[in-house]
Amino acid sequence: MSRPEKDFQVAVVGGGVCGLVCVVALRRAGVPVQLFEAAAAFGEIGAGIGLGPNAVRVLRDIGVLDVVLQNCNPNDLKPRGFVHRTGVGDHRGVFETLACDPEDCGLGMHRAAFLDALVSVVDPDIVHFNKRCVDVTESSSDPKRVVLHFLDGTSHETDVVLGADGIKSSVRKFVLGGVDDRIAFGHTVAYRGLIPYATLKAAGFKTDIVKSPACFMGPSKHLIVFPLKNNEIVNVVAFVARYDVPIGTHNLPDGAPWVEQVSRDEVQREYSGWGPDVSILLACLPEKPSKWSIHVVHPPLKSYGKGRVAVLGDAAHGMLPHLGAGAGQGLEDALLLSRLLGHPNACVDNIEDILRIYSQVRQPRAQTVWERSYFAGRVYDGHGPHGEDWESVGQDLEGLFAFVWRHDLDRDIDAALALLPALSLDR
Questions:
Q1: CA neighbours within 13 Å on the CB side: how many for 218?
Q2: Virtual torsion, Cα 312, 215, 386, 323, nearest 10 deg
């Protein structure tokens, strides 16, 4: 049975992971959509991306998981727990986040390969490059339409705008009523690099990260280490944080870069005195690893939408990455939006209700993940309830990943449909 033709058009702003997943999900739900990307071509900065079981379920639900797996080793889809280890000293395991349920399969892969898989299923005719959105306004001729304004002087009028344009979102300003004061430095930097696993082993690295990725914990710092590309490459993310300054009170100087190349020596100095495997990891980093000053959305948005405009992903709830949950939350946003906008009863007259319900269902979930991600980082860095009593920090970590991984997405969809009687029909 064919879907009824929609009487509205959607414009998605931002062609990163979240925006592409949103476009694919909408198209497969029968929703007409156009994608506007600021860059001249699709591309992702960064190295590896970790997708938890909740994110994997979204990819399966929208029918692209098999395509994604074709761009990596299918064996990389597997239950992925974490062993939390001491970073200073002997690297003993002090807590394990178990992923033994068959439904707990996660995926780690190179970010560019993941993006390529998504691009392969997007119709190029609906993609518009070199379209950096600088403003969103209501249409002067039709109160039920919205206008996107681009840096090149062009504009696009549509019925619905979905901003997947990241932490520096221009769409979020419209949602906030014209003034965006929600970008805050998270007082956390992340040094990132990829290392051939053979190089690490030749240098004497002993920790088994194939069976379970590792989180090396220590005072105000921690490292996340996991393999990619059939265990040929190791993704290293080394975090350094401050906890004496609340988020939102001090930001970077104007014009300071958020991402820059630095010397390997800088990272090694930060981790001076840590254990042998950490020292080996950092000595094997590229000569110029990247340094990311991580920003978040704070204070949280009370609503992810206004009128016929909504934000999703980092534009809505950019968070610290300490539960590996940021991408997954964006995918959850995209799935719910596609189910609501793709519903047979969705029409131009109830768009505002749909976006209000989207926000009402998603905001509490995503904000709780935001808060738990912040809490997890404090625990890894010895600033949680048990401080630097590493043998006891497992009590602080218990259940954090399960809350993210095992969330019932179908229940969210049912709850959203139930909140809008006009859409409360069989899915």
A1: 23
A2: 10
